[in-house]
Specification:
Distance between the termini: 30 Å
Mean pLDDT: 97
Number of strands: 6
């Protein structure tokens, strides 16, 4: 199984990083598309080194590399999780604008009916954001806002991050123990 992880320029790159960590531990091959905007946000919001993040992935692709295998439906991969998904990336996906590899790979998922999970990260939402979420949903994407639950009585920020990472993996049909489940 191969899964694409996209990290776009929204707050919350920790979600994508945790997904890469979990998938690396599970020895599941990953393709990473880390946008330049994401690298800037990571620098501002975290102490993480982009090199560490890239080392977690099996394959790393530049956001402008349209020759990457994941840019084609002929390359077999299970699906894609964009975590976090900026409103710019959401708009590109919802409107079929494949202006970088992240959006192109999402387009491949939609056209080939592969799983596409968009962990949107913005608040409050404008009408345009909501319309783009609906358009992406109607095209086949799963919209997973970064809204962690509290029934698992989180004790740390890591617990909140693990919840969202685990839910994204659940939606990708990857069995995981990233978080404490309901009941």
């Amino acid at each position: 199984m191969e899964i694409v992880i996209g990290i776009s320029g929204a707050s919350g790159a920790q979600y994508g990083v945790r997904l890469l960590e979990i998938l690396a531990d599970m020895e599941i091959d990953t393709h990473l598309v880390l946008t330049k905007a994401a690298e800037k946000i990571i620098e501002v919001e975290t102490d993480l080194n982009p090199g560490y993040i890239k080392d977690l992935a099996t394959y790393v692709h530049d956001e402008k590399d349209f020759t990457a295998p994941i840019a084609s439906g002929s390359h077999p991969f299970a699906g894609m999780i964009v975590a976090p998904c900026s409103m710019k990336t959401l708009a590109a996906v919802a409107n079929g604008i494949s202006d970088n590899l992240l959006a192109r790979t999402a387009d491949v998922c939609l056209k080939d009916r592969r799983k596409l999970i968009l962990m949107t990260r913005e608040t409050p939402l404008s009408g345009i954001h909501i319309e783009n979420m609906l358009k992406a949903h109607n095209a086949g994407a799963i919209i997973l806002p970064a809204c962690p639950a509290y029934y698992n009585k989180p004790e740390s920020i890591d617990d909140l991050i693990n919840f969202m990472a685990g839910r994204a993996l659940d939606l990708m049909d990857v069995k995981n123990e990233a978080y404490r489940r309901w009941g």
